[in-house]
Amino acid sequence: MKNRLIIFDCFGVIFEEIAPPFFRKHFEEETAAILKEKYFVPADLGEITRDELFNRMSEELGIEKSTILKEWDELTRFRPYMAPIIEKLGKTADIALLSNAPLGFVEEIFEKNNLTRLFDKMFISANLKMAKPDPAFYLHCVNSFGKKYDEIFMIDDSPKNLEHLIEIGITPILFTDAEAMLSSLGEC
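Request: output the structure for the sequence above.
Response:
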């Protein structure tokens, strides 16, 4: 049996996306993409807190903070079919989470949905002050296990986050659905 590490992204893979649909609801597509970058890059890098993030968004976008938080909560939707898949994969591989997210957010929603148990290790960008697609973020994750792997996979819904992974020894898998992901992992 091969020694494998499977790394999962959070939003767009385990949970539905949150920021893109929120911004698309309130702004045109092009503006939405710019605003997502403007607000979430500093939060993802731990330069501002989650509270500061929502305060800035409220102030600059002219949307009540309570409205933003309510919409955010409604958009935080777990994909329940992913839990048994990750659990099964974890029987034959090391499993990690590698997510760009503001401080405390992923931990909170994982605890609420009893998901922390599925991962051997979790790496959140705000905690480490580095984010995808920085190769150092991926390598920190891999090296933290202290093992030599025959195969390392990164599952993400963002093509940008998968670029250049082959160059550092990680096989990228663009997440479109669970069946295609399992096929790419050789699990079907």
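The two ends are 16 Å apart (CA to CA).
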